[in-house]
## 1
Amino acid sequence: MTKVALLDYGVGNLYSVANALKVAGADVITTDRADDIQKADKILLPGVGAMRDAMAHMAEHGIDTAVKEALNTKPVMAICVGMQAMFDVSEEGNVPCLGIIPGTVRRFDDAWMQNNEPIKIPHVGWNRVDADTDHMLWQGCNHEYFYFTHSYYCDPVPNDQLILAHTTYGQKFCSSVIWDNLFITQFHPEKSHRAGLKLLSNFINWQP
């Protein structure tokens, strides 16, 4: 059974993520210990709340270093604020992030329109995710609806190495990236029922 280290750095809905991973078929350990992370087959970085707090907690627990080291040897997945942390900088407090993927985390523009009305911020609820790829991570769950709750979105620098998925909320924005052995999602698979469990199962079985 694939062992997934769920990284605990003081932010994140750990119980629901751990439970969803177990249902999807993983052996889960919730940890911030370097030896646990090294022994795991795969890593999952959750995240909720403000980016400044998230980055401070990562540094305090050594999770920033652990994620970068893990990316050298094993698949890593990151969710919501975990996804945003992979970029260069966030407009939420102008916080420097991990700088793994070039780009900026931007706030939704309240001038964007949806159904002839200004969008509501934060973006909360179900929305479709479309990936223009046949990558195995999206098999059985592409073009499905996933659950979102966020006020900021990721704006990657165009790069042929990135496999992107998009969602429309007022305008089209990036809602997932696959890059080498890194898989990140703005939405919450653990809250997305069948499609979310299928996506997590694909990650558990993924061999980049």
## 2
Amino acid sequence: MSAPTCRPTHVALPIVVMGVCGAGKSVIGAQLADVLGLPFLDGDDLHPAANVAKMSRGLSLTDEDRKPWLTAVGSWLTDHRSPGAVTACSALKRSYRDQLRAACPDIVFIHLAGDQHIVIDRVASRPDHFMPPSLVASQYQTLEPLQDDETGITLNFDQPVDDLVHAARQWLGTATAA
């Protein structure tokens, strides 16, 4: 776990669990949403069919490919601003996060980061998903970590799910005393 960049000012926020494919965004995001009592969306569900087809063929998406998808994710978060919501969205580049922030300025990010070899194994073990292991390297090449002026925290995804959710809740300021 790394130190947070900026802390959120309140808990009921739009939350993006971000990172490369196979980092655990959907699992952590869904469980975090459940414990916070907030709606959850797997951002992959909003990819246009052309994006899914392209990735299924082992081709990386371009910034232009991602724009309509990020617009849809940003719109969903804006629609669920009150009382807040959680989405899993790669948000790999600062410019992608900026696009999400333009739609929903009070957004916060929980970046799940870690070893590329772990991700390759995880992605290879989910044959029913459209993202092939061959695209993992390009995701790591595209990834721009959170910057100091972005409200977010980076957590190492090579920890138990409950520990990651607890760390996220603590950072968000909602963890209950054990």
## 3
Amino acid sequence: MQAAIPLFGRFTALDAVGPYEVLQRIPDIDVVFVGHQRGEVRSDNGMLGLSCDARFDELPRPDIVVVPGGIGTRVLLDDEALLDWLRKAHAHSRFTTSVCTGSLLLAAAGLLDGLTATTHWSAVELLEHLGARYVEQRVVEHLPQRIVTSAGVSSGIDMALRLVELLVDTEAAQAVQLLIEYDPQPPFDCGSLAKAGEAVRDRAAQLRR
């Protein structure tokens, strides 16, 4: 199986690397970073670069699509090269998925029309403007449509483990979870808007700028 992770300028690193770390643990899955052109793409803060090893036209029919998010998604909402690739790839994929604001690109491609979906809490209004119906869940599945969306950044790991379960089996997903020692025990219980107080929300808004 071939998993394609599209990269673009100002993507969020963990959105791409989290699912990559999960999926590449399965011997039958080859993960390929794909983009408008081959070569390095820098993350949202410019500090990290990943390399695209294939252009969109070189990878037309991946089995799995994982679209990361990041502030760079906003300028791609009318990028027909990417959106057309998403539409055509989804026509043949086993699953088309997103992490964080990657769901904005799925929605812009018309893949979430009328469906419930999730995204980063800061992009809810834009997601709904693009035709999806936001729900406050960490992972949202539409298995008949082969669509899975996940919320902000870290939720991509959860989503990728679920993909392994769907593509292989539950024990394989559990084994990968053990291999990456994914056993979250955060020091604070404020990882969602529902749990965060006003001061924390204000500070988060400042840090996003």
